[in-house]
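Ticket opened by: R.M.
Priority: normal
Category: complex prediction / small molecule

The reporter submitted a protein together with 4'-phosphopantetheine and asked that the result be attached to this ticket for the collaborator who will pick it up next week. Submitted input follows.
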Amino acid sequence: MTRCLCPGSYDPVTNGHLDIIVRAAALYDEVVVGVLHNPSKRGRFPVEQRLEFIREAVPEGLSVRVEAFGGQLLVDIAQELGATAIVKGLRGGTDFAYELPMALMNRHLTGVETVFLPGDPALEHVSSSLVSEVSQYGGDVSGLVPDHVRDALVARRG
Ligand code: PNS
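Result attached by the on-call engineer:
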């Protein structure tokens, strides 16, 4: 039984995240999507809503669990879950520069490996912060996030 952890803020989930989650599910018996929140910071969406957005978007029949974590090191979460790898998507060199020190630190701490999947080039420009900003100012983010997330972004305009 192999299990991986796909961690992130997912505030909110994008189609880029979902692509990685679905592809991770093809590589591991079980994927745990870890929605990590900083208890002292208010995000764009409450954690419960972020979990719901992901649960609604993950295709049926995949072995994917979606759970929230806060105030904990990622490596401790991975260990508690029995996850053998942390899986992350890379959109390009900037992501790699941001992710590499974290991957090395996490391996230093417990030996857990990070597996990088190349992000879908069609979604290279997609991030939670960018889609939120574009939507906030009236831009259409259809196709970049699930429709229910787009609708929630539209609903919080103003
Ligand atoms: O979606 P994000 O915001 O890029 O995700 C970053 C996240 C939450 C995966 C990262 O900040 C993280 O791992 N936080 C948990 C605390 C931790 O372990 N920090 C040390 C990382 S080396």
